[in-house]
Amino acid sequence: MRLPNEPDVPPQINIVPMIDVIFAILTFFIMSTLFLTRSEGLPVDVPGAATSEAQPQNQIVVTINQEGQLFLDRQPIALDDLTTQTQELVQSGQSPLVVINADTEVNHGQVVSVMDRLRAIEGVRLAIATQRP
């Protein structure tokens, strides 16, 4: 019951809890998108190319770092074992995309020898990783 002398309290909407919820949701989306990036190769300084194109996600990544070390999907590998290991990763009936992720300081001859070994595998498509300038 209200007394006749009591003033009416104007209705209010408290938005502080709503702002807290919105910031919590925003934080969740920001953090989840940071983990959605897919990086299968090792971090190397790839060359830039203005005509580079995005490739599908199902790919095999061969990385050649600045010291000339070779990696197949982040696992160290010798050049002689590259063909057999890649053939094991290739599923029959598909033409897989093998991305060569080579540092800008790597000798051109080493990249060509890796490409030559990979082209010996039937049905393999090759791509070279670059970044847009």
Quick overview:
By secondary structure, the chain is α/β, with parallel strands linked by helices. It has helices at residues 16-34, 82-89, 108-119; strands spanning 59-64, 70-72, 75-76, 97-102, 125-128. The protein is rod-shaped, with a radius of gyration of 27 Å.
What topology emerges from the helices and strands here?
Blueprint: H1 16-34, E1 59-64, E2 70-72, E3 75-76, H2 82-89, E4 97-102, H3 108-119, E5 125-128
Parallel strand pairs: 1-4, 4-5
Antiparallel strand pairs: 1-2, 2-3
Q: Look up the CATH topology of the domain at 59-128.
A: Nucleotidyltransferase, domain 5
Query: Largest beta sheet: what is the strand line-up?
Result: 3-2-1-4-5
Give the termini separation: 72 Å
**CATH class (first level) name of the domain at 59-128:** Alpha Beta
Summarize the helix and strand pattern as letters. HEEEHEHE
Residue stretches low in confidence (pLDDT < 50, at least 5 long) are: none
Query: Could you tell me the strand content as a percent range?
Result: 15-25%
Question: What's the number of extended β-strand segments?
Answer: 5
Average pLDDT reading: 79
Overall geometric form: rod-shaped
Report the radius of gyration as a whole number of Å. Answer: 27 Å
Quickly give the CATH architecture of the domain at 59-128. Answer: 2-Layer Sandwich
Overall helicity: 25-40%
Number of helices: 3
Name the structural class: alpha/beta
Largest sheet: 5 strands, mixed
Structure description:
The protein has 133 residues and is an alpha/beta fold. Helices cover 29% and strands 16% of the residues. The chain has a domain at 59-128: Nucleotidyltransferase, domain 5, CATH 3.30.420.270. Strands 3-2-1-4-5 form a 5-stranded mixed beta sheet, covered by helices on one side. It starts with 15 loop residues before the first helix and ends in a 5-residue tail after the last strand. 9% of the residues are buried. The model has no long low-confidence stretch (mean pLDDT 79).
